[in-house]
Design goal:
The chain has 6 domains: about 20-115, Phosphorylase Kinase, domain 1; about 120-290, Transferase(Phosphotransferase) domain 1 (Transferase(Phosphotransferase), domain 1), CATH 1.10.510; about 295-330 and about 540-595, no CATH class; about 370-435, no CATH class; about 490-535, no CATH class; about 600-730, Pleckstrin-homology domain (PH domain)/Phosphotyrosine-binding domain (PTB) (PH-domain like). It contains 19 helices and 41 strands.
Length: about 725
């Protein structure tokens, strides 16, 4: 952990260098904190391709070979494995608008990935500098990238670095997603170089935190930031600055032509809290396709009425999870070295001997200098060259134990029985062998040390192993009876495979049996060993509290209250970081008011009833459905009130005003305009007459299933109701 890294990486390979005996290196297309991208000639297919070279910051080049100085050989082995294993997964299936993977190989001490070259494609970054994208074009790119990410996520993969520089736009306009980043994330955690490995403008806040969990919502943040950039021409305010208080510039303040609903969806993707973002492409698609129409107001009244009925029946079990109903438990951290997968066995370091022979598993490999004189025969390539002796003294003659090929020392080097005299280096080249050879005295196995740092098996394997060229640490695993990419530790009970180094641990594979859900959440993550006991029992925060064994909801204990750390339940996750009593967490999960806030629900119901009256959804008098209004009002002439308040009655046919002895009326259908301001309502009629009133509020009682509600209706409610009625009569 906290491995320091250099600010710059090694120089790129020379143009013309041939990789994997197939790819001729051309121009450098780009480089970052993790690798170099080359445009190459595919000599096997006769076209151009792209090759990505694993060259993380902190490494150097020795000739053409990469040396992982900063992280060391053990972590280097893990980086190579992560880099290639993700590529091999992608190589197995086709993902729409991800360039097809052609080859995954090792060379020069590092790893390479070759993919198709999209002819004529340009990085999205080059297009952003021009005119702003119109909304239709930006939406199309967003929707196509959603389809790509959905396919990636369906294969249990994440991209982890969605940004314009990792998106290529083909001549057809289709976006292609490149440069997947699981190895990059692991390296960033190891080196604490998140600001180098990830572009801060497009990285979610959890990508800049070595302990945070990455999910599909992490990819969707990058997608939202990219869409924001397409529409505004500049990336959004970075997550780190916004976390420290800087605002996100509203999208519509820059692009007022963007529909409010679409802008809201994009800004929701940029939520700092990953729980506030859509949790899947399907959820995002539903958000984008949702018709943002107001519900019928009567629906609102029914919803609030039902909520109050539920509140009256509310009960809760203090041992029950408010999100899923499973059991809440107080987990105790695991004992040191306990396996987090099975929570039973101990994690033990494997005995992996660096020089153990991978062929027989019993012998020890020793290095032989195969230069002058040669150790291995130029004739058959495999036989040992043994010196002839006379009276225990060497004679300068060497004979192959296998084919009896003979060499005799000369001033130039050595000659064979035919008189062919060459330097030792030429004889070695003729043998096809390397200068350094690893040799087992027990089983006579031979491994040539290749220029890229790997050992090439030169003799047949007695156990039928498929591997022929591996790195020394991988051969050491084979010698121990393991696969080359196995970790250096395992659980003695369930066999879970781990990599231990520098006080950290990584679970390498997702076991078939994951009884506690640890592997599904943390497989492939770099975790400090001292945090593992809490993480294993679902406590990501490292503090004591409660965890649901079903949905993994997590609370931290804070006196009489519980602070929500994590939940997948949408109603709850909006309140992450808040502290409440468990009773109120149950209420929040059921969309009920917290203790002490019950009056707010009654106020909401009253407000909804007023709105429903104004929209004509509920009547003034249940016994007289034609009655629209009945109550005291004072007629207004200019700025002066005339007389005392009298009765204003409005039904479906007439507007009448006055007392018992004197009353005047007009047909309601002749009202052409209704004006309302404060306490006043003005009616304008077809014949040009105008009636203005100061309305005194009236109180009505509505009987709902959850109880009775008294509501005060005034001038605003009357004006809105009359406007709806007259509009309907004219329509």
């Amino acid at each position: 952990m906290n491995v320091p890294i250099a600010a710059t990486g090694p120089a790129p390979l020379r143009e013309g260098t041939v990789l994997d005996e197939r790819f001729a290196v051309g121009t450098v297309l780009g480089r970052g904190g993790f690798g170099i991208t080359y445009l190459v000639e595919d000599l096997a297919r006769g076209d151009r391709a792209i090759v990505n070279e694993l060259v993380p910051l902190g490494s150097s080049r020795d000739g053409d070979d990469i040396v992982f100085h900063a992280v060391g050989p053990a972590a280097g082995q893990r980086l190579r494995h992560l880099f290639t294993s993700e590529a091999r997964l992608l190589q197995r299936f086709r993902v729409p608008r991800v360039p097809q993977y052609r080859a995954v190989f090792h060379e020069h001490g590092t790893a390479y990935i070759a993919t198709d070259y999209i002819e004529g494609a340009k990085p999205l970054t080059e297009l952003i500098g021009g005119p702003l994208f119109d909304v239709v074009h930006a939406k199309r790119i967003l929707e196509l990238l959603m389809e790509t990410l959905e396919a990636v996520h369906n294969h249990a993969l994440l991209h982890q670095d969605v940004k314009p520089s990792n998106i290529l736009i083909a001549p057809s306009g289709d976006p292609y997603l490149v440069d997947f980043g699981s190895a990059r994330r692991w390296h960033a955690d190891l080196t604490i170089a998140h600001d180098v490995q990830f572009s801060s403008e497009y990285a979610a806040v959890e990508q800049l935190n070595e302990r945070a969990r990455h999910t599909t919502a992490t990819d969707l943040y990058g997608l939202g930031a990219t869409t924001y950039t397409l529409l505004t021409g500049a990336p959004p305010t970075s997550a780190t600055l916004r976390r420290d208080g800087a605002p996100l510039i509203p999208l519509r303040s820059v692009r007022p032509d963007v529909h409010e609903d679409f802008a809201t969806a994009v800004e929701q993707l940029l939520s700092l809290d990953p729980d506030d973002r859509p949790q899947s492409v399907a959820e995002l698609r539903a958000l984008l396709s949702k018709q943002f129409e107001e519900r019928e107001v009567s629906d609102r009244v029914r919803e609030l009425d039902a909520k109050r009925r539920r509140l009256k029946r509310f009960r809760y079990d203090p041992m029950q999870c408010p999100a899923c109903g499973d059991v809440l438990a107080v987990p105790e951290p695991l004992a040191p070295e306990t396996c987090p997968v099975c929570q039973d066995g101990k994690i033990k370091r494997r005995r992996i001997e660096e020089k153990a022979c991978p062929s027989c598993g019993a012998g020890v490999l020793r290095m032989l200098d195969n230069s002058a004189p040669l150790q291995f025969c130029p004739g058959c390539s495999i036989g040992r060259m043994v010196p002839k002796r006379r009276f225990l003294k060497e004679t300068g003659v060497w004979t192959c134990e296998k084919c009896e090929f003979t060499l005799e020392r000369t001033a130039m080097g050595a000659k064979d029985n035919t008189g062919n005299d060459m330097p030792w280096e030429e004889w070695r080249k003729q043998s096809g062998r390397q200068e350094r050879v690893m040799y087992c005295e027990a089983c006579l196995a031979q491994f040539d040390s290749m220029p890229d740092g790997r050992w090439q098996r030169m003799t047949p394997n007695m156990f039928g192993q498929e591997w022929t060229r591996l790195y020394p640490d991988e051969w050491a695993r084979v010698a121990a009876g393991l696969a080359p990419d196995s970790g250096n530790a395992s659980c003695e009970s369930c066999g879970a495979d781990y990599f231990l180094a520098d006080g950290c641990i990584t679970l390498l594979s997702d076991p078939l049996n994951d009884p506690h859900g640890f592997a599904s959440h943390y497989c492939g993550h770099l975790i400090p060993i001292n945090e593992l006991p809490f993480l294993a029992v679902g406590k990501e925060s490292g503090h004591k509290g409660l965890v649901c064994r079903g949905c993994r909801l997590e609370f931290d204990s804070q006196g009489q209250e519980l602070k929500l750390v994590r939940s997948t339940e949408p109603r709850l996750r909006k309140h992450s970081g808040e502290s409440h009593r468990l009773k109120d967490w149950h209420r929040i999960a059921q969309d009920l008011p917290k203790s002490g806030d019950e009056d707010e629900l009654s106020e909401d119901i009253a407000g909804a009833l007023v709105v429903a009256f104004g929209e004509g959804e509920i009547g003034f008098d249940a016994k007289n459905p034609d009655l629209i209004w009945k109550g005291p009002a004072a007629e207004v002439h200019g700025d002066n009130l005339t007389g005392r308040p009298q009765r204003l009655i409005i039904d479906d046919g007439l507007v009448s005003f006055g007392g018992l002895l004197r009353r005047r009326s007009e047909l309601l259908r002749d009202v052409v305009r209704v004006e309302g301001e404060g306490e006043y309502v003005t009616l304008r009629f077809l014949d040009g007459e105008k009636w203005s009133f100061r309305i005194e509020p009236v109180k009505l009682t509505f009987k709902l299933e959850s109880g009775k509600d008294e509501v005060e209706l005034g001038a605003a409610a009357l004006a809105k109701r009359l406007s709806a009625v007259t509009k309907r009569s004219r329509g």
